[in-house]
Amino acid sequence: MPSDSSESLQTIALRDRPDLSALNLSSQAEQKFARAQWLQHLPSISASATGGLTPIRPDNVFPENWYAAVGVNLNLPIFAGFRISSETKEAKLRAQASERRVADLSNAIRKDVQTAELAAQTAYQRIGVTEAFRDETAKALSLAQTRYKLGLSSIVELSQAELQSTQASVAAVNSRYQYLLTLRSLDYVTGKIIP
């Protein structure tokens, strides 16, 4: 039986699922891109400088053989034809859509964890039922064998008791298998097993 509570399993799943991590990173990238698009409204200042030596120069015009220049550029985005505002709005909407995809996947993961946990609990309880059924059919087989040896029943009754006992044993093994399968399914939805 899984020992973790549903809330801790959901926390583990939300932390460890690679698809949710990828979607979270994509959402963060969309938000940063939206912020960068908004920053286009602000003025920008750039500067450049250069300097160097001149190998050949006329002696009477330039007394030194070095040169330097500095330039400053101020960009004011005033007349952009509403391009910046539309790009900003588009980026914000993409970021909101990405956040909703993250929320949808988180809800789906929570639902999957709850479903897998309930399936594991059901499979675990089914083990006890099938083992009790196996024990009862073993007792019925023993009684049928005793009745057959005493001559109180036919071979058909004994054969049916053997068949039920075999079917109960198979059902007990299948219930254990189903329990292990549901545990692996629970491990998958919590992100412990990656395909």
Description:
The protein has helices at 6-16, 18-38, 83-150, 155-189; strands spanning 44-53, 66-75. The protein has a single domain, classed as Outer membrane efflux proteins (OEP) (Up-down Bundle), CATH 1.20.1600.10. The protein has 195 residues and is mainly α. Helix 1 (6-16) packs across helix 3, helix 2 (18-38) packs antiparallel against helix 3 (83-150) and helix 3 runs antiparallel to helix 4. The protein has four helices and two strands, in the order H-H-E-E-H-H. Strands 1-2 form a two-stranded antiparallel ribbon.
**Broad CATH class:** Mainly Alpha
Total domain units: 1
Order of helices and strands: HHEEHH
- Rg (C-alpha, Å): 38 Å
Binned, the helix content reads: 55-70%
- In whole angstroms, the N-to-C terminal distance is 23 Å
- Main sheet characteristics: 2 strands, antiparallel
Mean pLDDT, to the nearest integer, reads: 89
CATH topology: Outer membrane efflux proteins (OEP)
The counted number of beta strands is: 2
Structural class: mainly alpha
Fraction of residues in β-strands = 5-15%
Tally of alpha and pi helices: 4
| Oligomeric state of the chains in view | single chain
CATH architecture annotation: Up-down Bundle
User: Segments where pLDDT lies below 50 for 5+ residues?
Assistant: none
Strand order of the largest sheet: 1-2
